[in-house]
């Protein structure tokens, strides 16, 4: 059974940093495009950052230069978030996109002003 398990969320002051991790139990992890999305209540889920199987990255304009997405051979996806702002407050989801799509359960990130 495929699982994506996020960790690393929490409460941080504006200007601070957090690192999110996603442990993926996908046998063919290397062929999947991986991504982080976020969602605020009442709004659509939005793409934060994505990374292809070859390491090409893409970021939302709102996080460009502050967030860094990475993946490793241990089937872990990470999101380093620096210079956090209150508007970054959301539930963050790890996702895998390939022959099938998979989603994690989400982790809450709260940035206080």
Description:
With 113 residues, this protein is an all-beta fold. The chain contains no helices and eleven strands. Strand 5 (46-51) and strand 6 (57-59) form a beta hairpin. 31% of the residues are buried.
Compact summary:
The chain is mainly beta and 113 residues long.
Number of helices: 0
Radius of gyration of CA atoms, rounded to a whole number: 13 Å
| Count of beta strands | 11
Average pLDDT: 95
- Report helical residue fraction: under 10%
Q: Look at the helices and sheets and give the structural class.
A: mainly beta
Largest sheet descriptor: 7 strands, mixed
What is the helix/strand order? EEEEEEEEEEE
Strand content: over 45%
The parts where pLDDT drops under 50 for at least 5 residues are none
Give the overall shape, derived from the CA principal axes. Answer: globular
Measured between the Cα atoms of the first and last residue, the distance is 40 Å
